[in-house]
Amino acid sequence: MQISRYSAPEFDPYGDAAPDDEPGGWAAPVATGPLDAVLSLPGSKSLTNRELVLAALADGPSVLHAPLWSRDSELMVEGLRALGTAFERIPGAGGFGDDLRVVPADELTGSTTIDCGLAGTVMRFLPPVAALALGPTTFDGDEYARKRPMSGVIDGLHGLGVDLDDDGRGTLPFTVHGTGRVGGGVLEIDASASSQFVSALLLSAARFEQGVDLRHTGERLPSLPHIEMTVAALAARGVEVASPEVGRWRVAPGPIAAIDVDIEPDLSNAAPFLIGAVVAGGQATITGWPASTTQVGAQLADLLPRFGARVEIEGGRFTVHAPARGADGGRGIRGVDLHLPEAGELVPNLVALAALADGPSTFTGIGHIRHHETDRIAALAAELTALGGRVTESEDGLRIDPAPLHGGDWHAYADHRMATSGAIIGLAVPGVVVDDIGCTSKTLPQFTELWGRLLG
Questions:
Q1: What is the DSSP string of 221-235?
Q2: Which residues contact 125 (CB under 8 A, 6 or more apart)?
Q3: What is the pLDDT of residues 110-165, one digit of tens each?
Q4: Contact indicator for 456, 436 with CB cutoff of 8 Å
Q5: CB within 8 Å of 418: residues ≥ 6 apart
Q6: d(CA 152, CA 223)
């Protein structure tokens, strides 16, 4: 499959500089010995952007403690600001930026344009909010954003009687002609391409006059934990949510409570650092690990041992210990067979680990990641093959037969997960150059700084 290559736009989130790309790309550092690192990470993008939407629709001001400050969260803030929401930065106690006070608008107003960048949460979560605003709101984004599936949200809003003009494309750009109200009611959509279609409609549903009784009609539903995260966030704000059967959700109409929320560290962003220790040897610890969570990154506790690593979680600290090196000089990393429909965002980093394993690996159930920031299946196959890897691509998966890799250019496709996967490969393979490490600012502007700390 052919995939286009381009760079993400420059970004400087609220004055915190994004990673700079060196002329010709970022030379991924090679690990020269076992690691022994302890790192703290900024807040979860998935939780931050859900809480931003709910706070904007709430019945009073809310404070988000330790939110993520990144390109995706800035785009969400600016989109909500365009609809009338007010924001105030408050000095935070953590080391990754300020807290954020969110003041809902007395009346949401459209007659604006929202830049979605490449953020799936923005392009999918905000159109239902815009339907509750008065006036037209046009949505557009980066080049590849126009290729990302939007049918679930577009069809869902049409099904609720919202006037939405997309010229029949089923993708960005489109305009929502908000009237200040949405009737709500019974609705069916196909969310096979993205669980965000479901979350988008659930997040605003309490503000619909009849709420929503939403049913998924497709054959598969990827990334179910992200829907569970949405339901938990709604319930914490007093919204009545029920799931009477698999693939069906009911949200009752009513107020969304204004509350103060502590945002958990982003556990998916922990993946490259934990995997880095597995590749380089030694150990790495992530602090602030929640005892219970709806984040997909929590699955790393089960996934990394499949590769031969040892994991400890104690006192809010997640530590991974690399497997013992093989007598034949191998890294001791085992090949795996993984079916990961619920953990697609972890796949690029896990595939990079599999490319450095001592045996073959297969990944299945991941066809939906073809519609993420880029076609991640095709991109991973292309980049690993270009460095000497043996990769077989299928419609919904990959097979990796480890082969000696060599240095060369690693294209990120403006995709933060692809960029961090290149960094992982570079730990073990000299001469890997990531063309666009700056795109990690999408969810982790501090990536290169933290990567340096990982390597000591």
A1: ---HHHHHHHHHHHH
A2: 49, 50, 53, 76, 196, 199, 200, 203
A3: 999 999 999 999 999 999 999 999 999 999 999 999 999 999 999 999 999 999 99
A4: no
A5: 348, 373, 374, 376, 379, 380, 383, 410, 411, 412
A6: 15
Distance (Å, rounded) from C-alpha 102 to C-alpha 123? 20
Q: Would you say 279 and 51 are in contact if contact means Cβ atoms under 8 Å apart?
A: no
Q: Are 436 and 396 in contact (CB under 8 A)?
A: no
Q: What is the CA radius of gyration of the chain?
A: 21
For 401-446, where are the alpha helices, taking DSSP H only? 416-428
Cis peptide leading into residue 91 (ω within 30°): no
The DSSP line for 95-141 is: SS--EEEEE--SS-B-SEEEE-TT-HHHHHHHHHHHHTSEEEEEEE-
CA distance linking residue 122 with residue 145, whole number of Å = 11
pLDDT at 393: 97
The string of pLDDT tens digits covering residues 269-313 is: 999 999 999 999 999 999 999 999 999 999 999 999 999 999 999
Place of tokens 């990470």: 41
Query: How far is the C-alpha of 453 from the C-alpha of 456, rounded, in Å?
Result: 5
Catalytic residue selected from 74, 264, 345, 383: 345
Instruction: Output the CA–CA distances (angstroms, integers) from residue 421 to 36, 142, 144, 290, 425, in the order listed.
Output: 20, 22, 20, 25, 6
Least Cα distance to 219 among 362, 393, 341, 120 occurs for 341
Which of the 8 DSSP states describes residue 345? Answer: G
Name 126's Cβ contacts closer than 8 Å, sequence gap at least 6: 53, 76, 79, 80, 83, 114, 116, 139
Token duo for residue 78 = 């600016």
With left for phi above 0 and alpha for psi between -120 and 50, is residue 388 left, alpha or beta? left
Cβ contact 251:160 at 8 Å: no
Non-local CB neighbours of 352 within 8 Å, separated by 6+ positions:
275, 421, 422, 424, 425
The 3-state DSSP class for residue 293 equals coil
Q: Which domains does the chain have, with CATH numbers?
A: 13-41+265-454 (3.65.10.10), 45-262 (3.65.10.10)
256-261-267-273 Cα dihedral, nearest 10 degrees: 150
- Residue 22 known to be catalytic: no
